[in-house]
Amino acid sequence: MPLLSAFAVFFIVWWTVLFIVLPIGLRTQYEDGDVAQGTVESAPARFKGGKVVLFTTLISIAICGLWYAVTWYFGFTMDDLPRIIPVYD
Fold first, then answer.
1. Mean pLDDT for the chain?
2. Is residue 41 a part of any domain in this protein?
3. Considering the domain boundaries, does residue 87 fall inside one?
4. Angle at 79 (CA atoms; ends 86, 17), nearest 5 degrees
5. Does residue 10 contact residue 28 with C-beta atoms inside 8 Å?
6. 20 pLDDT band (50/70/90 cuts)?
7. Beta pairing partners, 44
8. What is the predicted pLDDT for the residue at 1?
9. Which end of the chain is more exposed for a tag (fewer CB within 10 A), N or C?
């Protein structure tokens, strides 16, 4: 697989995982009982962006590594999946 394609796959996986990881462990200002004036109650009380980026990157590396291992080691490709739409010759 070309390097640019591998990076594109990683980029898509990374953004998908980011939106899964974002709400994990989040405490809102309402839950802490300290709502800052001018913000909504559901705003994060203490956002730890570095931790979120680190976990997202590690999980994405694991997913892409697994995907690469399955396609390279086992030789599984998209052509091995059954076709839902008939192919006309």
1. 88
2. yes
3. no
4. 110
5. no
6. very high
7. 28
8. 60
9. C
* b/e sequence 2-36, b meaning 16+ C-beta within 10 Å: eeeeeeebbeebbeebbeebeeeeeeebeeeeeee
Q: Tell me how many domains the chain contains.
A: 1
Q: Which of the four pLDDT bands, split at 50, 70 and 90, describes residue 73?
A: confident
* Cα–Cα nearest to 52, from 12, 18, 14, 15: 18
Per-residue tokens: 81: 């999946």
Is 89 among the domain residues? no
Extract the tokens encoding 73.
Answer: 């080691």
Which domain covers residue 12, as residue numbers?
Answer: 3-80
Determine the Cα–Cα distance for residues 47 and 22; give it in Å rounded to an integer. 10
- At residue 50, the pLDDT reads 92
Domain membership of residue 85 (yes or no) is no
